[in-house]
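Course assignment 3, question 2. Fill in each field.
Student: A.L.
Task: Predict the tertiary structure for the chain below.
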Amino acid sequence: MSERYDRLGWANKCFDALNALFLLALMLTMIIPFLNVIALAFSSGVASMQPDIILFPKSFSLEGFRTVWENLDLWRPFLNSAIVTVAGTALHVLLSCLAGYVLIHPELPGKRIMVTFILITMMVPQEAVMIPLYIVNKDLHLINTLSVLVLSGLVSGFSILLMRNFFLGVPYEMAESAKIDGAGEFRIFLTMYMRLATAGLATVTLFEFVGRWNAFTAAVMFINDSMKYTLQLALKSMIVDTGAVSSNYLITTNVRMAGIIISILPLLAVYPFVQKYFMKGILLGASKE
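Answer field:
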């Protein structure tokens, strides 16, 4: 390490030091608020109401978690979010894989036009289609149902093209050999391409799972019935307009922070299992044509 620094000039050393300080400051802006949320969630109600930034719980207590889960019925929004996220992610990954597999066939007519059309859809901001989406879902009588949240964003150009890039990495000659041996398209897709694109599947699954679990705009736009609230809507009601959640309980700061901790637990549980595929998937998906 010292030999390396000897070869570098003072300018490079200063740049490294400033870069390290900048990254440290950036890291602290994310870690300190998160530690504060954890400390407040595990503090008692009275201690959490004090206007201090704390990094360790004051008067350790689990009453915040008990209140938010039992008295405020957070389990129902949690269950709604779980249904929407699992069903929506599974369908999204399946459709993206099927569309990506179709696009790798060399004899597919109009393939370049299809890819161009998919790229164009990625340039349209979601805000530009919110009103048409609401009208279509209203005409289909999907407003105030969980189905509208599952169907919302069911396909995306990004996921389709990402899976297409992964499938392009599989030699097409292998598929042709399998066809000669009598394998059908679905069997080739399922047993060959899906197995060889594990990193791509993990990448798309993680992106979609996190996006759907944290989805807020679609839930606000399509859901008005409190029984169909997702976790993000329930947290918004609990943190911003507490009167809409409960008129019988004083919603203290530890209760709000406990709700936030509960909302991120599924993401913390899923991420370690797909982390090793995630970075590999991003790099491989970006490097192919």
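Instructor remarks: The chain has 15 helices and no strands. The first helix runs from residue 2 to 7.
Grade: pending
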